[in-house]
Amino acid sequence: MQFPRFVEAVSRRSELPMEQAAMISRATLQTLAERVTGGEAEELAAQLPDELSDYLTVPAGERPTGGKVEFLFRVANRAAVDPAVAEVGVRAVLNTLREAITVGEFQDLVSQLPKGFNALVDPIPRPPYG
Fold it and tell me: Which of 82, 94, 115, 120 matches a 20 to 30 Å C-alpha distance to 107?
């Protein structure tokens, strides 16, 4: 999935303008790269096009701590949006990522996120029993 299509999906899911969806997408990927360990950012980047994976460069130095609220504030600051807008955008980015990468990679990613992040990922619909 190329960056324009990724942003379009984020914009559609979040009902945010394309420009804002792009800023939140970049900010979310950068903040994810800071939070995950053990090569997870590189594994995630390997499944995304270069235009997206460039935002997953692991920064040197200390990794930020804190939970979901701290993560959302970091995204909000990077994207220059209100934290409530950041939350809507992060939800859309995570759900778009779920479609863009393998199930196993997405599970690995979410397992490293702070407690409370499960609420930002929409449940996968179960097939009807028939």
Answer: 82
CA distance 63 to 19: 28
Sign of CA dihedral 16, 101, 109, 121: positive
CB 74 within 8 A of CB 64: yes
Between CA 33 and CA 98, with CA 28 as vertex, the angle to 5 degrees is: 90
pLDDT given for residue 129 in this prediction: 56
Domain 3-120 has CATH 3.60.15.10: no
Q: Give residue 57's identity as a one-letter amino acid code.
A: T
- Comparing CA positions, the residue from 70, 94, 95, 92 lying closest to residue 83 is 70
* Cβ proximity of 54 and 46 under 8 Å: no
